[in-house]
Design brief:
Rossmann fold, seven-stranded mixed beta sheet, about 35% helix, alpha/beta, 7 strands, about 180 residues, about 20% strand
Length: about 180
């Protein structure tokens, strides 16, 4: 059994914002895997499906970014999952728009959603797929930047990154995470 989580903020006003790159990627996973994300429980929206005989859970926490760990820990406890059965897809300021980075573990790096997950899981050791959103221009506050939509000229790049992130998550359903890292980094 594997859990693929995309981080973001609920609500129409956040739908196309930089901070919702994880939601976008999980929506793409749902589309490509044919999993309906229509169940509300565990402080999130989720769907369950089977891929090549393996149970797959897709989750979008609806707690707002800073409390994402509350939703994830509930799902993990309910389904009795270990951290090596979890991958989290989220936005990354330190990666250029259009790029992804796949990691096995790491610190929160200032990302409040990841901080919450680390706090609730009690470890930094869980798989991650970072979707690049780039850094804000000089003088621009990070909080404002992550909550704004992508610029029109970035649309193609972010769609490409979301697709790559989904492909990386989906390939983890068949390959080891090390193989996924080698393929997508």
């Amino acid at each position: 059994m594997k859990l693929i989580v995309g981080l973001g903020n609920p609500g129409k006003q956040y739908e196309k914002t930089r901070h919702n790159a994880g939601f976008m990627a999980v929506d793409e996973c749902a589309r490509t895997l044919g999993i309906d994300m229509n169940q509300l429980k565990f402080k999130g929206m989720y769907g369950v499906g089977h891929v090549k005989g393996e149970k797959v859970i897709l989750l979008k926490p609806l707690t707002y970014m800073n409390l994402s760990g509350e939703s994830i820990i509930q799902v993990m406890q309910f389904f009795k999952l270990e951290t090596d059965q979890l991958v989290v897809i989220y936005d990354d300021l330190d990666t250029a728009v259009g790029q992804i980075r796949v990691r096995m573990k790491g610190s929160a790096g200032g990302h409040n959603g990841i901080k919450s997950i680390i706090q609730h899981l009690g470890t930094e050791e869980f798989y991650r797929i970072r979707v690049g959103i780039g850094r804000p221009p000089a003088g621009r506050k990070v909080v404002d930047y992550v909550l704004e939509p992508f610029h029109q000229e970035e649309e193609g790049d972010i769609q490409s990154a979301v697709k790559k992130a989904s492909e990386a998550a989906n390939s983890w359903l068949e390959d080891s995470f090390v193989q996924v890292m080698n393929r997508f980094n």
